[in-house]
Amino acid sequence: MPNANTPAPKPIxxxxxxxxxxxxxxxxxxxxxxxxxxxxxxxxxxxxxxKELTLGGWLGGALQWHFAAMWLLAANGLVYLALNIATGRLxxxxxxxxxxxxxxxxxxxxxxALTHADPRHYNSVQRAAYLFVMVDxxxxxxxxLVLWKSVQFGLLRDxxxxxxxxxxxxxxxxxxxxxxxxxxxxMVALVPRTLLAMLSGRHTTATTNTAAxxxx
Length: 216
What we know:
By secondary structure, the chain is mainly α. Helix content is 70%, strand content 0%.
């Protein structure tokens, strides 16, 4: 039984991180569903998305949802990045990162030998994935600004190869984000205590016991 005088363990995920995570989840859900409806109005690939998976009902409604979620994602992303840098979490959690480390942990993951005993520490594959989604989100917002106000953001439009090419960049960046979310959900299903940690911010009993057993 823990000593009553023992201080409570430090949260795995601080409150600001959990708030940013769930706001991002909401923003991404709205962005993807409304974005698919916008894409369906003028597809540039030989397919469209099922209407049941889209949001907005019609193009104008989808645009309103999309822009509202874009500002939420952009503002929340800036807060997330600023706090990660200010608290030193960015350097502590995501670096160092090397190609050799990513390859090693990827092979271990494919063999089912990659441990998730301590959610306080990210392996190289997780670090690479989270850094990717940060960069991908920046690309989504920048290309989205071009699609929203092409004339006002003329320099950015030219840097992204023009309006039509920016549309394709935006689509590919969206696909990358959806892919990340899909893998993320699979990993949560395989290791449910990571979801509990993101809700409560603290270790579950199962996590603590597993870590203790591996340390023994």
